[in-house]
Every structure is written in C-alpha cells, then in structure tokens.
Amino acid sequence: MSIKPLVILPDARLRQISRPVGAVTAEIRELADSMLETMYDAPGIGLAAVQVGVLKRLIVMDVVREEGRDGEPIIMIDPEITWSSDERSVYREGCLSIPDYQAEVERPAQVRVRYRDIHDRMQEIEAGGLLATCVQHEIDHLNGVLFIDHLSKLKRDRVMTRFNKLARLQGRAAS
Known about the structure:
Peptide deformylase, iron, protein biosynthesis, alpha+beta
C-alpha cells in the first residue's frame, strides 16, 4: 500500500467518465487499499479512483470516522444508484480534489446502491444521512461530475476561476 497523490481541480481527468473495473484482481485490491490509506491520510471520508488518477469505477468511503466512531471502510466496485428518494437533504460538502472549499449541496436523502465488493460479490445497500450524501458524491466523480456542479453557475465559476489561477501559479495546467 502507498499514499497516492491527489488529482486537483482543474485537472481534466476529473471531468472524464471512469470505465468499469471488470475482474477484481490483486491489482484492484491493492489500489483499493492504497485509496483507503490516501483517504485516511488526507483526511477525508470518501475517495474515487479518478481522484488518484485511475479512471476505474471504484470508490472507497468511511463515514463513521466522521461521526467519531472506529472506522468501517466500504469499498464499492462498479457502483450504481438503483433508486433515490424524492425527499431531499442538504449537507455541507467538501472534496479532496477541491481543497479548502465547502458548500451546501442538496441531494436525495436516501439511495439504494448496487455494487461488487472486494471479493467480487454483488451487494446492495440502502443509505441515508451522511452515507447517502457521500456515496452520491463519489459516484458523481465516476461520471465526471463534481459537487460544485450542483451549485449556482456564479458560485461554480468563482471556484473554477480560483483553482485555474492557483494551478497557473503552481505551474500545473488543466491537463
């Protein structure tokens, strides 16, 4: 395992659609372990493979640490939302790929997600609260969508301007 560098806005990879994982190999298990280590080190509660530069449909999460309990990591391979509630909830979201920026985002309050686990078994969970928000945020990443896309155009444009300027100052362009 190793901590991987994070892909930061405005990197164009964040806007690409991730490919299905396919077979759960030793390489995929190692990637998931490295993603968890990277997420905990950051620290964060969720991470999509694209955020470490791998365009595969793989996400890791651990929301219970945010709630002050011992960690319960969740690894989802090729996740898909199969149902979402009409009821909405608002959470203050941040993103490891958009450091030092948070905003309130409205999403469905509950979702049902089907995915394969690290042992290649089909799983389905129904999630509410912070877990529902986190899984929607991470699946958005797999589809090239960022949480700032759920904000007004004015707020989104301000964030993009800030991160484009920062990237130029640091000598990293939107690749």
